[in-house]
Each structure stands twice: as C-alpha cells, then as structure tokens.
Amino acid sequence: MPLKIFNNKKIRIVADFVGIIIGAIIAAFAIEEFLVPCTILDGGIVGIGIMISSLTKIPLGLLTVVLNIPFLIVGSKKMGHWFIIKSAVGMAIFSAFLEIFAPFKNITSEYLLAVCFGGVILGVGVGLVIRFGGCLDGTETVAILLNKKFKFPVGKVVLVFNIFIFTTAGFLFGFDRAMYSLLTYFITSKVLDIVENGMEQTKAAMIITNDAKEISSQIFEKLGRTVTIMEGEGLVSGKKVILYCVLTRFEIHELKDIINNIDSSAFIAISDVSEIIGTHIKKSGKISLKKEPTEQQ
C-alpha cells in the first residue's frame, strides 16, 4: 500500500517541490550567513550577483532573480517544462530567502570556518534541489543546453565559467578571497555529490521492462537520448527487453518520471560513467513511433 501511495504522480510532484523549497532555503542560509559576510563567492549567477551587490549595494535576492530570468527563457525552449517550472520555483524561493536572511547576524567571521561550513551547507542545499529535479543557477541550464547541442561536458562548462568569476573576484576583492571562493566551490561540489548519492556528470541507465518501445521513444523525444535495445532472459521472469542509454545527472529525475509513468514495475540500474569513447548519438530530429530508436550510444 505505501508503495502505491508514493507512486502516485501528484504526490511525487508535491514531494519534489517540497524538496526543492527546502534545498533552496538551506542554500540561501549558507550564502547569507557564511559566505556573503566574508566576501566569499559562490560560483555561477550567484557569484556574479555577490560581486555586483558588493559594489552597488543592490539586494542580492533581486539580482539573483533578474540575472537568472534570461537563462530560464532560453532554457524553456529546449528543456523539459517540469525542469523549468521546478527551477523557477527554486530560484524564486532562493532569492526570497536571501533577502529574509540578509538582516540576520552572520554565524562566523572566521574565513576558514565560513569556507568549510558554508561550503558544506551550500552543497546540501544545492544537492537537494538537483536531486528533486530543479536548478538554482542559470549557468547550469546553459551548460546542459551546450551539452545537448555540442556535447560539451556539463561540469567542464560550469567550471570554466566559475574560474572566470573567481579570477574577476581576485582583481576586485583580492586574490585571497578568490582562493577562499575556489576552495568553497570544491567543498560544495563534493558535498553535492554525496547528497546526490555519488552522482557524476555522466550516468548510464539500464532498464529492464515490458514496454521497451514506448519508454525508448519517450527517452528520445523528451531527453534527446538514443537507446540501445537488447534481449535478455531472467532466471525466473523469462524473456525480457533491456534498454541502455547514457545521460547526464540532471536528466536522471526526468528519466525516472518517464519510466514510472509507463511501467512502474520496470527494473532500473543507474551507474557512473567515467569515460565515453566513440560516437555519442543524440537527437537531431523527431522520431517516428513506428521505429524503435536502436542507434548505438
């Protein structure tokens, strides 16, 4: 009975939004109570916002909303609608709580403590948001789009963007702040990985199902990922069809939704991929439901 309750689509959607809201609040707390008082930057749009806010006194919450809007507009044309809706909610809550926490007295003025605890708490918050299918930073949306179109690794795009931000911060606030910010970034990234159960930028999904044609078509339509279809045989269950596809960590949540909506009894195994060698085929046009997408990943 409990499994049927949690398999209910509406309940799962509500749970996703609750997780995103909690994660956004935690991330906002880390930013305002640990990082901002010590002029330690987060990466991405928030880092740019911290720099502008420090120089102009414009509220960080307002800057976060304004700077993220263009990225959401661009992403709305290419990303799944639930990803955009969840990201918009997460960013709105995050920005609101940045303003709520701003008047509070900062937890510590010790730089090393701010880096360590701020990085850990921020990683927990951002990790929860990503785990439940959202995003707090527009640069990650752009990185995912570049990955879909040009196959640029998501992590590397974000890292290059953040290195530029931290270098700029070094000239504005001193290179000691830039180094503290870079250290915070690495701590946040590691904690985020732990919260997301050890996720890497690239994942491999193996799906054993009785609805292979519909699931593979939906994966291709919604995620732009081709699927390798194999035949297998279970010791007890007999003949089965096995689907194999490679995708990014940000697409795992939508993959689960696709499978749960079609075959809630499907068996899914998700593993890390350290390296991809060879042609990685991605969607270049619309798929016909009469044909099974069997291109090799």
What attributes does this structure have?
Alpha-Beta Plaits; 2 domains; 4-stranded antiparallel sheet; disordered N terminus
Description of the structure:
There is one protein chain. The chain is of the alpha+beta class. It has two domains: 194 residues, no CATH class; 71 residues, Alpha-Beta Plaits. The chain is built from eleven helices and four strands, in the order αααααααααβαββαβ. Helix 6 packs parallel to helix 9. The longest helix is centred in the first third of the chain and has 27 residues. The radius of gyration is 21 Å and the shape is elongated.
Helix content range = 55-70%
**Cα-atom Rg, whole angstroms?**
21 Å
Structural class: alpha+beta
As laid out across the biggest beta sheet, the strand order is 2-3-1-4
Shape: elongated
Largest sheet: 4 strands, antiparallel
In a nutshell, what does this entry contain?
The protein has 297 residues and is an alpha+beta fold. The protein has 11 helices and 4 strands, in the order αααααααααβαββαβ.
Helices and strands, with pairings:
Elements: H1 2-7, H2 9-35, H3 44-56, H4 60-76, H5 81-101, H6 111-131, H7 138-150, H8 154-173, H9 175-195, E1 202-209, H10 212-223, E2 228-234, E3 238-248, H11 252-262, E4 267-272
